[in-house]
Design brief:
The structure is a single chain. With 210 residues, the protein is α/β, with parallel strands linked by helices. The protein has one domain (12-206): Ribonuclease H-like superfamily/Ribonuclease H (Nucleotidyltransferase, domain 5, 2-Layer Sandwich). It contains seven helices and five strands; from the N terminus they run E-E-E-H-H-E-H-H-E-H-H-H. It has helices spanning 51-58, 73-101, 121-126, 128-149, 162-168, 175-186, 192-206; strands spanning 12-19, 22-29, 34-41, 108-112, 153-157. It has a five-stranded mixed β-sheet, sandwiched between helices. Helix 1 packs across helix 4. It is elongated and about 55 Å long.
């Protein structure tokens, strides 16, 4: 493995795209070099959607679904807390492993912006809209917290706007051509999630952050 370039001014960012309790992480430098591509699981052997599944069952939603099972509200709340703690531990371990293997110092992480949610677990569970997105938000926030502990800057991106910001960082190459080049370098799988993570990483690496 190449030695880490700790003293350079070149910014390196990680782009993250969530999928259930896993994250696709792509690391690129501000000049568009691909440094790493991986998928990590933030939790293991725990339900992946405790707000949307167990929480909903606890308040009477989706009980006619074949996979539903009786769950009390205190049980659902305790499970959400357990999964949240596990996700933070998984995020810490995942970023530690990534940092150890990327040959340049990572300083930023790009994570999809989170919608506003009620302040408590109970309130999120009670609100059907909030419960449907609270699990995804939980995993994104766990990754952001782990990155903050490492001293990385979190850049929150909007899926609809990040491509424009990334394209501006490639004055001599189109974004599509750049993504195709990265895909050939990375090899399969190179899916929409990987492309979005790479796009967000490039936009974050090139962004001037005060």
């Amino acid at each position: 493995m190449a030695a880490k370039q700790r003293g350079g001014a070149e910014r390196v960012a990680v782009g993250a795209v969530e999928h259930g309790n896993s994250m696709v992480l792509v690391a690129v430098s501000a000049d568009g070099a691909l440094l790493d591509r991986r998928r990590v699981d933030l939790t293991h052997d725990l339900p992946s959607h405790p707000f949307h599944h167990e929480g909903s069952w606890a308040v009477g939603r989706y009980l006619t679904s074949p996979w539903a099972r009786p769950t009390s509200l205190p049980q659902a709340v305790a499970l959400c807390r357990q999964v949240r703690e596990s996700a933070l531990a998984g995020a810490r371990a995942s970023l530690e492993a990534l940092s150890a293997e990327v040959p340049r110092a990572i300083t930023r992480i790009a994570i999809r912006a989170c919608p506003a949610l009620p302040a408590t677990i109970e309130a999120c569970i009670a609100d059907a809209r909030a419960a449907s997105v609270a699990d995804s938000v939980m995993y994104r926030q766990a990754l952001a917290a782990a990155a903050e502990e490492r001293g990385w800057t979190t850049v929150w991106y909007e899926r609809e706007h990040v491509a424009r910001a990334a394209a501006a960082a490639l004055p001599r190459l189109s974004l599509d051509d750049w993504l195709a080049t990265l895909g050939r370098q990375a090899g399969p799988p190179w899916q929409a999630r990987h492309k979005l993570a790479a796009t967000a990483a490039l936009a974050a690496a090139a962004r001037v952050v005060s």
